[in-house]
């Protein structure tokens, strides 16, 4: 409807990520020192709502630069909201429970993504039937209807603030904080293990989110799928991650060995991309494997940050991790669009496979660094519990 090329389309993903290169790093500071966790969550939710409205207006008015602005504003709230969400989680849950909690968080997020990918096409068709024509107006109205979910998110933030405040009074509990005192010099204190976790995160997600963003057309062109079939297979990663994330979170809680889980996830992801790039096997196999691997990695990787940094740097570490993840996603999204426009899908899949290979190298390095430094990242759950009792 907007007559844009792939590079312009992927720029919408990049505009979401750019503000978070900075804001995620300071998200914990804003929560601790400026807004507080409750007000901060509400403010970030409001930014998400405003961003979605601007984005929809851009489509409605056939003004692409306004859509870019909308994605930028949406991004200001989106990832900072994730920092607030993590802060709530760390505030209410400790130790081995965190793996399951992170899994449940991811599960709910992916349910939303799945509904979006499979329902918005249907909503667009209904709006088209109502108006009697296609074009920017139809797209804009569809996006405006999609914005209702942002209002629901805001209402949840308000309810959560009420519940947290009530618990604070009843349980004499302090308001959730990241526990950080922002100092740029804190970065120099980050361990090599933490930097390797950052590398794994950036390189891995660079081969997931941009791929899913471009996946629908890939399945239509390479496998001759219909638009509906392509949407279904493209969303299977999120469909699988919804139920599997809490299950894997529970397993990692009970068994430990986080690095081994991450290694399995990265190897499986690499196999999936190689299958999609070089074979014409049924793509449902590769995409199902990708969904399982994606769920497993999130449950095992993100909680490891809490194992390698002191409590007072936890917010800084999570904020920094999301910050460089967004930098990577912004750059990769633009690069992916350019590669697809000039070289095609085979080169793009090779590029994504190379990103996963870098992630695999970082996982292997993390295993040996952790082993040589006597780290606890690969402890079993029983050993970790025993050592915590001793401490």
From TrEMBL:
Residues 1-373 form the Major facilitator superfamily (MFS) profile domain. The chain crosses the membrane at residues 12-31, 43-66, 139-163, 192-212, 232-252, 259-278, 284-308, 320-340, 346-369. It comes from the Eukaryota. One of its GO terms (cellular component) is lysosomal membrane. It is a multi-pass membrane protein. InterPro entries: MFS, MFS_dom, MFS_trans_sf, MFSD1. Keywords: Lysosome, Membrane, Transmembrane, Transmembrane helix, Transport. Signal peptide: none annotated. It is found in: Lysosome membrane. Gene3D superfamilies: MFS general substrate transporter like domains. It catalyses: L-lysyl-L-alpha-amino acid(out) = L-lysyl-L-alpha-amino acid(in); L-lysyl-L-alanine(out) = L-lysyl-L-alanine(in); L-alpha-aminoacyl-L-histidine(out) = L-alpha-aminoacyl-L-histidine(in); L-alpha-aminoacyl-L-arginine(out) = L-alpha-aminoacyl-L-arginine(in). It holds the Pfam family MFS_1. GO terms for molecular function: transmembrane transporter activity. PANTHER family: MAJOR FACILITATOR SUPERFAMILY DOMAIN-CONTAINING PROTEIN 1. Lysosomal dipeptide uniporter that selectively exports lysine, arginine or histidine-containing dipeptides with a net positive charge from the lysosome lumen into the cytosol. Could play a role in a specific type of protein O-glycosylation indirectly regulating macrophages migration and tissue invasion. Also essential for liver homeostasis. Homodimer. Interacts with lysosomal protein GLMP (via lumenal domain); the interaction starts while both proteins are still in the endoplasmic reticulum and is required for stabilization of MFSD1 in lysosomes but has no direct effect on its targeting to lysosomes or transporter activity. Belongs to the major facilitator superfamily. This is Lysosomal dipeptide transporter MFSD1. The lineage of its organism: Eukaryota, Metazoa, Chordata, Craniata, Vertebrata.
């Amino acid at each position: 409807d907007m007559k844009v090329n792939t590079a312009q389309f992927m720029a919408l993903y990049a505009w979401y990520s750019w503000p978070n290169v900075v804001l995620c790093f300071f998200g914990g500071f804003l929560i601790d020192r400026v807004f507080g966790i409750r007000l901060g969550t509400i403010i970030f939710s409001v930014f998400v709502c405003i961003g979605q409205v601007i984005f929809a207006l851009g489509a409605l008015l056939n003004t692409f630069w306004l859509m870019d602005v909308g994605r930028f504003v949406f991004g200001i709230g989106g990832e900072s909201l994730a920092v607030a969400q993590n802060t709530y989680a760390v505030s209410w849950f400790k130790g081995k429970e965190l793996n399951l909690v992170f899994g449940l968080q991811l599960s709910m997020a992916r349910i939303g993504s799945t509904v979006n990918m499979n329902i918005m096409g249907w909503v667009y068709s209904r709006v088209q039937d109502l108006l009697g024509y296609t074009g920017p107006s139809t797209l804009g109205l569809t996006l405006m209807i999609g914005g209702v979910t942002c209002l629901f998110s805001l209402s949840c933030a308000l309810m959560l603030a009420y519940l947290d405040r009530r618990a604070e009074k009843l349980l004499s509990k302090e308001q959730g904080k990241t526990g950080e005192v922002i100092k740029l010099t804190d970065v120099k204190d980050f361990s090599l293990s933490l930097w390797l976790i950052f590398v794994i995160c950036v390189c891995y997600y660079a081969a997931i989110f941009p791929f899913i963003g471009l996946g629908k057309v890939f399945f239509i062109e390479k496998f001759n799928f219909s638009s509906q079939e392509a949407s279904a297979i493209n969303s299977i990663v999120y469909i699988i991650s919804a139920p599997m994330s809490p299950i894997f979170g529970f397993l990692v809680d009970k068994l430990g060995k986080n690095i081994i889980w991450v290694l399995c996830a990265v190897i499986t992801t690499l196999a999936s991309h190689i299958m999609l790039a070089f074979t014409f096997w049924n793509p449902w196999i590769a995409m199902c494997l990708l969904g399982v691997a994606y769920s497993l990695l999130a449950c095992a990787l993100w909680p490891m940050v809490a194992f390698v940094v002191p409590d007072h740097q936890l917010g800084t570490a999570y904020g920094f991790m999301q910050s460089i993840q967004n930098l990577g996603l912004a750059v990769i999204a633009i690069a992916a669009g350019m590669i697809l426009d000039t070289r095609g899908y085979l080169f793009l899949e090779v590029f994504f496979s190379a990103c996963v290979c870098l992630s695999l190298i970082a996982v292997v390095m993390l295993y040996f660094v952790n082993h040589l430094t006597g780290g606890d990242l690969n402890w079993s759950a029983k050993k970790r519990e025993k050592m915590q009792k001793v401490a």
